[in-house]
């Protein structure tokens, strides 16, 4: 897989190839962080859930706060509901990361906006702590939706997909890594239904897929 930035607002994804998509095992994951700049911020929570046979297994989850070397700004605390006090007794990333790798073992990873935030964030953290980067294949719901709907030119926000697929999120805590992982899983399953309705069994990005980057909204 190759992700190539073509402007401040767009990137293209190519080289994605997953066969027999409906038969795969998936790990949907999400990170919360001290901020939205993946180059300078740090992970504060890891959440993940397994999908097997088209079902989100809410009894197979991973959820851990992560102690950060820098404090969470007050605006981010209010936005995510994750406060510095939550991290006081939390493990360091290097002490919890192998557990996450084991949880995601042999799975195809699913994320939302992970190509532009979660994966670069994790890559930087791995370099800081000399940890191995994830090598699992990874699918991003933004790229998958853009593949199916190239006619939609706007940014594919989570809330857009919730409305598009009429997905219930009222039972979930938003901006929580585990809650968002379950929500992304629900979105992903609806996207899979679209692939199946079009008789597409293999995901092949033969031509580069254009994706709009999310816009950074200052937190105050």
UniProtKB/TrEMBL annotation:
SUPFAM superfamilies: Ribonuclease H-like (SSF53098). Gene3D superfamilies: Ribonuclease H-like superfamily/Ribonuclease H (3.30.420.10). InterPro entries: DnaQ, Ribonucl_H, RNaseH-like_sf, RNaseH_sf. Keywords: Exonuclease, Hydrolase, Nuclease. It comes from the Bacteria. GO terms for molecular function: exonuclease activity. Residues 25-197 form the Exonuclease domain. Pfam families: RNase_T (PF00929). This is 3'-5' exonuclease.
């Amino acid at each position: 897989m190759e992700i190539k930035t073509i402007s401040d607002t767009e990137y293209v994804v190519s080289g994605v190839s997953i066969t027999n998509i409906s038969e795969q095992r998936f790990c949907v994951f999400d990170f919360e962080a001290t901020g939205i700049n993946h180059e300078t911020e740090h992970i504060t929570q890891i959440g993940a859930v397994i999908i097997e046979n088209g079902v989100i297994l809410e009894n197979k989850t991973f959820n851990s706060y992560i102690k950060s070397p820098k404090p969470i700004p007050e605006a981010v605390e209010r936005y995510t509901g994750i406060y510095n006090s939550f991290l006081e007794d939390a493990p360091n990333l290097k002490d919890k990361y192998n557990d996450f790798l084991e949880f995601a073992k042999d799975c195809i990873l699913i994320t939302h906006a992970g190509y532009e935030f979660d994966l670069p964030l994790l890559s930087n953290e791995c370099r800081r702590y000399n940890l191995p980067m994830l090598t699992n294949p990874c699918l991003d719901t933004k790229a998958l939706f853009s593949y199916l709907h190239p006619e939609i030119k706007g940014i594919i926000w989570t809330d857009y997909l919730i409305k598009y697929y009429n997905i219930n999120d009222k039972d979930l805590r938003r901006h929580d890594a585990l809650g968002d992982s379950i929500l992304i899983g629900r979105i992903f399953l609806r996207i899979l239904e679209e692939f199946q309705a079009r008789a597409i069994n293999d995901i092949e990005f033969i031509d580069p897929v254009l994706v709009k980057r999310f816009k950074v909204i200052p937190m105050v």
